[in-house]
């Protein structure tokens, strides 16, 4: 069950994307936030004014999840990718691939250009982005063309060498004029590589150069030029926050990173398809206390990709792994195409791995909190009960309940909790054999007597002093016996244990007039218990579970007795023949109308039985 109150407490005050799921686990809404903590909480805050559409969406939320990012811009683009992938019912934005602009470098040309693009195509060009500001992209392209003196024309080079005069940019010293053959292909390529380095994330040289030129212009009192450089500097800083979520090569890849503590590790995988992050998943790895991150990554890759139906072209790993080459060959053979394992060190790809690692750390820290809360609900609750009753130690608790309707089919249930958790494999059902009518005390006496006599017999057969916990549920005796009732039920249990010479503490779970647990009955004293404590909650869970298990068994027995047919009253007709008759004739009316000869056509129906059936329906 998704605990909204607890999950809302765990939300980080970081940028990211959140996904709302309905009761069928379908994603119904994807949103972004500069602070996940503030944004997601606002949906569940009564004081927040919401549109009718959002009100309706919130009413359908069964759970939510989220992915942290490094910036709101990254969250924006990730939101776009996930909306396109999952098409959530309550999202109405970001419908096409032209939502954000890209920077395109035509590296397949002899003399490449840097262009503005609204979509990414598989045309052998390199794409960077997407970016949030079209103006900033245009300013950056203009800046790079000026700094690296690259061409902006559409001429087909080298075919159009010398076919026309050089443009104004050449005379302004903003283009090397390759159209005139003034620069070799190699020298021009060097300038293009510098531009690509900038686009790959190395902004320092350009930022320093712009800072220097702005300061120089200011010192020379050329304020107009200084303002121009300042604006270009701001544009570069804005673009330097470039989106890492979408990769420029449009390939399929998985980005894998992990976080570990002393005992466990969480591996986070980002799934990139066609250059876009469309989903993520985390995997819990245990028994890793002695393993390095490299060893854990290697184990994960081997185990995960041995069973996954799709293998991407590239796996980007957080660290080097020992059998990298062997694993590459293995994955390539499985895929039927070359697969690469890469460990990025700089630039965008390295940032993506960092982002995966951050999300892995977030999952692991939350799991630690979850484990602590679970220990509080289980082991901590058991310790509370032990302290309340003055018992030194409780490991195993057994609870019993009786169910009947006006004495019909009396049944008993035995539920078992070990370390505060249900041990369902040890649950047992009892069909009362010696009691008729609604006598719960007598029924409880029979159930407890049968339970402990059976256990004592098993112990004798084992012929051991220290009963190992691997044996049957009856062999293991409880450290505390919980009775669904007060003084009367407790005394019945104490009498049974005394007759069998067993020393087991017995505690009653006392209910109030509204059938809610109000306290414990132990050693002839009713002990009040804090309704808000974990111990109280555990007692209530055990009591409810014993009742549920008994009712479930009783209901199944009633169902069996109600599955009855008029055919059962015919001599010689049992379940098998009844089933054969219904399969052959389809209805009771058809059986009534059948002749002896027709009845004999049914498998396993002899002439004698056919005559019995025929006679039965005619008397």
Helix content: 40-55%
Q: Tell me which CATH architecture of the largest domain applies here.
A: 2-Layer Sandwich
Using the CA coordinates, give the radius of gyration: 38 Å
Distance between the termini: 59 Å
Report mean pLDDT, rounded to a whole number. Answer: 82
> Helical region count?
20
Q: What is the structural class?
A: alpha+beta
> What's the CATH topology name of the largest domain?
Nucleotidyltransferase, domain 5
- Our count of domains comes out at 5
Low-confidence stretches: 93-98, 464-471
Quaternary class = single chain
At the fourth CATH level, what is the homologous superfamily of the largest domain? UvrC, RNAse H endonuclease domain
The general outline is elongated
Can you describe this structure?
This protein is an alpha+beta fold. The protein folds into five domains: 4-86, 3-Layer(aba) Sandwich (GIY-YIG endonuclease), CATH 3.40.1440.10; 102-239, no CATH class; 253-374, Ribonuclease H-like superfamily/Ribonuclease H (Nucleotidyltransferase, domain 5), CATH 3.30.420.10; 382-560, Nucleotidyltransferase, domain 5, CATH 3.30.420; 566-616, DNA polymerase, domain 1, CATH 1.10.150.20. It is 44% helix and 18% strand. It has helices at residues 4-10, 36-43, 52-59, 72-86, 134-148, 168-171, 185-199, 204-219, 223-239, 293-307, 324-335, 347-377, 379-389, 440-462, 487-499, 534-562, 575-585, 588-593, 596-599, 607-616; strands at residues 16-21, 27-33, 63-68, 102-105, 114-117, 126-128, 253-260, 264-273, 276-286, 314-317, 340-342, 396-405, 408-418, 421-422, 428-431, 480-483, 506-511, 517-522, 525-528. Strands 12, 13, 14, 15, 16, 17, 18 and 19 form an eight-stranded mixed beta sheet that branches. A five-stranded mixed beta sheet has the order 9-8-7-10-11. Strand 8 and strand 9 form a beta hairpin. Helix 8 (204-219) packs antiparallel against helix 9 (223-239) and helix 14 (440-462) packs parallel to helix 15. The longest helix has 31 residues, at 347-377. It is elongated and about 115 Å long. Residues 93-98 and 464-471 have low confidence and may be disordered.
């Amino acid at each position: 069950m998704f605990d909204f109150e607890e999950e809302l407490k765990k939300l980080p005050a970081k940028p990211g994307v959140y996904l709302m799921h309905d009761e069928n686990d379908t994603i119904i809404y994807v949103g972004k936030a500069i602070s996940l903590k503030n944004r997601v909480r606002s949906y569940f805050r009564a004081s927040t004014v919401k549109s009718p559409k959002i009100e309706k969406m919130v009413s359908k939320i069964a759970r939510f999840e989220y992915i942290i990012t490094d910036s709101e811009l990254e969250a924006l683009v990730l939101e776009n990718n996930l909306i396109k992938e999952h098409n959530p019912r309550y999202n109405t934005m970001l419908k096409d691939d032209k939502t954000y602009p890209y920077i395109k470098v035509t590296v397949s040309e002899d003399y490449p250009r840097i262009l503005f693009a609204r979509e990414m195509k598989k045309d052998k060009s390199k794409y960077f982005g997407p970016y949030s500001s079209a103006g900033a992209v245009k300013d950056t392209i203009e800046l790079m063309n000026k700094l690296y003196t690259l061409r902006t024309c559409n001429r087909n080079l080298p075919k159009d060498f010398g076919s026309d005069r050089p443009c104004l940019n050449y005379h302004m010293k903003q283009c090397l004029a390759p159209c005139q053959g003034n620069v070799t292909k190699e020298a021009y390529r060097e300038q293009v590589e510098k531009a690509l380095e900038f686009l790959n994330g190395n902004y320092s040289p350009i930022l320093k150069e712009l800072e220097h030129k702005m300061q120089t212009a200011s010192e020379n009192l050329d304020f107009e030029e200084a303002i121009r450089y300042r604006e270009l500097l701001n544009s570069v800083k804005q673009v330097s926050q470039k989106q890492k979520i979408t990769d420029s090569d449009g390939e399929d890849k998985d980005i894998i990173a992990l976080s570990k503590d002393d005992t466990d590790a969480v591996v986070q995988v980002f799934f990139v398809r066609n250059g876009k992050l469309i989903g993520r998943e985390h995997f819990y790895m245990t028994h890793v206390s002695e393993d390095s991150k490299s060893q854990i990554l290697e184990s994960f890759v081997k185990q995960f990709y041995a069973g996954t139906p799709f293998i991407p072209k590239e796996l980007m790993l957080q660290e080097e792994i020992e059998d990298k080459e062997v694993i590459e060959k293995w994955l390539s053979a499985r895929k039927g195409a070359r697969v690469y394992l890469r460990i990025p060190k700089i630039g965008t790809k390295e940032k993506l791995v960092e982002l995966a690692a951050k999300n892995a750390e977030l999952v692991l820290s939350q799991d630690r909190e979850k484990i602590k809360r679970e220990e509080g609900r289980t082991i901590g609750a058991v310790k509370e009960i032990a302290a309340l009753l003055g018992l030194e130690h409780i490991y195993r608790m057994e609870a019993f309940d009786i169910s009947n309707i006006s004495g019909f089919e009396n049944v008993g249930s035995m539920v078992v909790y070990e370390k505060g958790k249900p041990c369902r494999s040890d649950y047992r059902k009892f069909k009362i054999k010696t009691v008729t009518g609604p006598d719960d005390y007598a029924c409880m006496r029979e159930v407890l007597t049968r339970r402990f006599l059976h256990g004592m017999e098993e112990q004798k057969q084992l012929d051991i002093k220290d009963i190992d916990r691997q044996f049957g549920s009856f062999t293991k005796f409880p450290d505390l016996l919980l009775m669904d009732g007060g003084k009367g039920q407790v005394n019945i249990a104490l009498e049974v244990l005394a007759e069998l010479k067993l020393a087991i503490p017995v505690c009653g779970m006392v209910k109030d007039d509204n059938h809610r647990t109000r306290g414990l009955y132990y050693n002839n004293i009713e002990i009040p218990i804090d309704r808000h404590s974990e111990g109280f909650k555990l007692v209530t869970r055990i009591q409810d579970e014993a009742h549920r298990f008994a009712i479930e068994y009783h209901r199944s027995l009633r169902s069996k007795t109600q599955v009855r047919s008029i055919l059962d009253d015919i001599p010689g007709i049992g379940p098998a023949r009844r089933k054969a008759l219904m399969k052959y004739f389809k209805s009771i009316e058809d059986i009534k109308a059948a002749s002896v000869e027709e009845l004999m056509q049914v498998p396993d129906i002899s002439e004698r039985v056919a005559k019995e059936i025929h006679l039965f329906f005619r008397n």
